[in-house]
Design goal:
CATH class of the largest domain in chain A: Alpha Beta
Distance between the termini of chain A: 79 Å
Number of domains of chain A: 5
Largest sheet of chain B: 5 strands, parallel
CATH topology of the largest domain in chain A: Heat Shock Protein 90
Helix content of chain A: 40-55%
Order of helices and strands of chain B: EHEHEHEHEH
Strand content of chain B: 15-25%
Oligomer: heterodimer
Largest interface: A-B, 49 and 45 residues
Radius of gyration of chain A: 37 Å
Number of helices of chain B: 5
Number of strands of chain B: 5
CATH superfamily of the largest domain in chain A: Histidine kinase-like ATPase, C-terminal domain
Chain lengths: 694, 120
């Protein structure tokens, strides 16, 4: 029976990536001067597990690589080696390489073999500094095949020591195994048995004289006695004989040797090659590989959440059967009970919805946990002293949000480190503590999750930003902007600052992409700053991507949903608020600000709209990508939660529309993408929306 | 059929061992470390224990030593999972009372044949 080992691969990869995480955080916490014994043990065991598993499941390169790491850690834990900062650094970078190897082995990306070889060499160099003897990795087939005499059999005298059985070794078993090799003559010798009174049944005082008629090598016999080597007296001599051993039986023996557990021979090596050669996946960021490998298709859920779910479903079933009983012989007198039942149903459905959403929620710590390493590496690279503070790691977020917010966060933190925090000397000169602080904070606020990245660095310089924007042609030189508006400029496409090619996040992308990514998640990102004191980036995200809190509005016969997150307020326009600027651009004056007006029916081509004059309809003031405008609609219908149904599945992507939903009466309503609508309005020549409001 | 206690802190190894042995008809109980294994062994007798060496809370060798002191486990076969290069561990294991060892990495067939030998 051959067992397919690949069914265990998924678990192996998951546990190995976890193990790598444990190793990484352990190493980051470690102080070379004061190594905690138990901590080192934890690290050793993690490496040992990965090594064992990878060898067992056929990933021999990974096993060999991890073996060197394990040897290093073994020496440290046995106190035969000091943990220097060099070895610490090499171990950390080895973890990266190992991660890449595991990712490639799980089929998600290509592997830079040269990098692996270099890293392994470095590891070995560190290991060998100690002049410890090279570790024997794979025992070659130990048996010497040279002296294949004409062996016809063996004569053995086997005398177990009295306590041999106490290790669970049964002489009978051993003899049976011998008998499996060929014809066996057994003679027992009871001469050493003590008298009845002294006889201890737990001891062995028997001795055997065995003649094995089998043309096997001595090594094969040694193997059978391997476990009890020290617990018996054993004499083995070849049987005298003139028959030459048949070559076929010798071959068989060699084969059997090859099967002994000592040779690290695993058939699954082929499948590894297949995986490398065959699978073509798109090259993605290492972090994404790690996430896909560990996140694709599976999620760890707190059992409490599952129990909640089961409870709610239970209640739902009860209510449903009550309703169906009512429905069977319904009389008008039971109307009240029917209504009660229906409202209970609604409550339970709502609870069910919440419970299920809870299941997809994971603590944001899984994202936050990578930042100590990133900050550690970057601060070394930039020669700045930076402390990272994490708050609210237990805040729970939808799994998809976690998967997609990682990269944008990395870019933003990298930005803070790069441009925010000053070099130590500068900080001291400014009267600040030498070590800068970056704070990553997550919390729930209303129906959203808020993530903040705060630094106590130099803050944003609005004049410098404006100058740069003018330089890059993003705004014209005459433009006057408020401080806040200048900050918004850094999110413009093309504003990308110095091309710092950091290998941590891969691409040197601009903040406009970051903002777009966040917008696609239904969130917003804002920036606050105090020159000289620091800056803060505030990201707001909906708790779930599947459901949206929206305001439904009507234009003509059509109903649209505007995400509540984007809405500031809704107003009725009074005649004195209306202004026409430079031709046809309509604006509405609100509290001193001139809001560009977007007539939704014009943008979306809706017929049958009822609002001709601004003052006839309602203006929904929205904010998107740092800009504000007012969207003219006929009526406000109400606020509700809608289920988001993507358009791409059944139709295609539409500008200005983020998704669709099905309303209670079965009709379809489109969900507006506020920044998209603003872009559409910009694009239409007759409706040039002003870039800024004074 | 015989019952086997499989002890390893690595989920994938446990899965592989359990699956292999169950497939042949053995009853398999899994434990994540020596402590869990010892607690189980105290309440129920098994016919064979296969244990990894490096585990948190209680390592394999300590487990073997503790098992041997239990009256029901004086002669039970106790096998260690070791790596090729650790002859030291093998000695320690034997001193603690281990019956023998299975060398890692092993494939399922090797595991099965060793178990069959030991359980008869």
């Amino acid at each position: 029976m051959t067992i397919d080992l690949s069914q265990f691969h998924q678990v192996f990869f998951e546990e190995s990536f976890e193990g790598l995480g444990v190793m990484e955080s352990g190493l980051l916490r470690m102080d070379p001067g004061a190594v905690d014994g138990e901590e080192i043990n934890v690290l050793f065991r993690a490496a040992h597990s990965i090594k064992g598993g990878s060898a067992t499941f056929g990933f021999n390169d990974i096993a060999a690589f991890t073996h060197v790491m394990e040897s290093l850690l073994d020496e440290v834990r046995e106190q035969r080696r000091q943990l220097t900062s060099r070895s610490l650094a090499v171990l950390l970078s080895s973890i990266d390489v190992l991660r890449a190897m595991l990712t490639a082995a799980s089929g998600d990306g290509a592997l830079d073999n040269a990098l692996v070889a270099r890293q392994q060499q470095e590891l070995e160099a560190v290991l060998n500094n100690r002049e410890s003897s090279p570790v024997i990795e794979h025992c070659a087939a130990p048996q010497a095949n040279s002296a294949i005499d004409q062996v016809i059999g063996w004569h053995l005298v086997f005398r177990p020591l009295p306590n041999m059985m106490r290790t669970g070794n049964d002489p009978l078993r051993i003899i049976r195994e011998l008998a499996g090799l060929g014809e066996l003559d057994v003679k027992v010798d009871i001469s050493l048995l003590p008298g009845f009174e002294q006889f201890d049944p737990e001891e062995c005082h028997l001795c055997w004289d065995l003649h094995l008629h089998a043309a096997v090598e001595q090594a094969r016999i040694n193997e059978i006695f391997e476990w009890v080597e020290e617990q018996c007296d054993l004499v083995i001599v070849p049987l005298p004989g003139k028959d030459p051993a048949s070559s076929t039986s010798n071959d068989q023996d060699v084969e059997r040797d090859a099967e002994t557990p000592r040779v690290s021979l695993v058939p699954a090596a082929d499948s590894e090659a297949e995986r490398h050669a065959g699978n073509e996946r798109r090259r993605t960021d290492r972090r994404e590989n790690e996430r896909t490998a560990s996140g694709a298709g599976s999620i760890r859920v707190d059992i409490q959440k599952i129990d909640n779910l089961i409870n709610v479903v239970g209640e739902l079933v009860i209510t449903q059967s009550m309703l169906s009983m009512l429905g069977e012989n319904f009389q008008m007198g039971q109307l009240e009970r029917l209504k009660e039942g229906l409202s209970e149903m609604e409550r339970h459905t709502h609870e069910l919805q919440e419970s299920v959403m809870q299941i997809r929620m994971l603590p944001i710590s899984s994202i936050f946990s990578r930042f100590p390493r990133i900050v550690h590496d970057l601060s070394n690279q930039m020669e700045k002293k930076i402390e990272l503070r994490l708050t609210g790691e237990n805040t729970e977020v939808d799994k998809t949000v976690i998967e997609k917010i990682g990269d944008p966060l990395v870019h933003l933190v990298r930005n803070s480190l790069d441009h925010g925090i000053e070099a130590p000397a500068e900080r001291i000169a400014a009267g600040k503590p030498e070590t800068g602080t970056i704070e990553l904070k997550a919390c729930h606020q209303g129906g959203n999750i808020v993530i903040e990245i705060r630094d106590d660095g130099s803050g944003l310089d609005p004049e410098r930003i404006l100058r740069k924007a003018i330089e890059k042609g993003l705004v014209d030189s005459e433009t006057q902007l408020s401080e806040q508006q200048s900050y918004e400029l850094i999110f413009q496409a093309g504003f990308s600052t110095v091309e710092t090619i950091s290998d941590l996040s891969g691409r040197g992308v601009g903040l406009d992409v970051v903002r777009r990514n966040i917008n696609e998640l239904g969130g917003t990102v804002e920036i606050e700053s105090k020159p000289g004191r620091g800056s803060a980036i505030i990201i707001r995200l909906p708790l779930t991507l599947a459901i949206l809190d929206g305001q439904s509005v009507s234009v003509g016969d059509e109903i649209y949903i505007i995400p509540l997150l984007s809405i500031i307020e809704s107003i009725q326009v009074k005649p004195d608020m209306v202004n026409l600027i430079a031709g046809r651009a309509e604006t509405c004056k609100l509290r001193g600000e001139y809001l560009p007006v977007i007539r939704l029916y014009e943008i979306l081509g809706v017929q049958g709209y009822r609002t001709g004059e601004l003052t006839d309809g309602l203006l929904v003031v929205v904010e998107g990508e740092g800009r504000r405008c007012g969207i003219l609609v006929d009526e406000l219908i109400g606020q509700q939660q809608v289920v988001i149904k993507p358009l791409e599945v059944n139709y295609q992507r539409v500008d200005g529309i983020s998704a669709a939903t099905i309303l209670g009466d079965g009709s379809v309503a489109l969900i507006l993408d506020v920044p998209g609508i603003m872009r559409l309005a910009n694009a239409t020549p007759e409706l040039r929306v002003l870039q800024c409001s004074a | 059929m015989a019952s086997i206690l499989a002890v390893d802190d690595s989920p994938s190894m446990r899965q592989m061992v359990a699956f292999t042995l169950k497939g042949t008809g053995y009853q398999v109980i899994e434990a994540v470390d020596g402590e869990e294994a010892l607690n189980y062994a105290k309440s129920r007798n098994v016919n064979l224990v296969i244990t990894d060496v490096n585990m948190p809370n209680m390592d394999g060798i300590s487990l073997i030593k503790a098992l041997r002191s239990l009256p029901g486990y004086k002669f039970t076969p106790l096998l260690m999972l070791t790596t090729e290069s650790s002859s030291e561990k093998k000695q320690q294991g034997k001193a603690a009372g281990a019956t023998g060892w299975i060398v890692k990495p092993f494939n399922p067939e090797q595991l099965l044949s060793t178990v069959k030998k030991v359980l008869g």
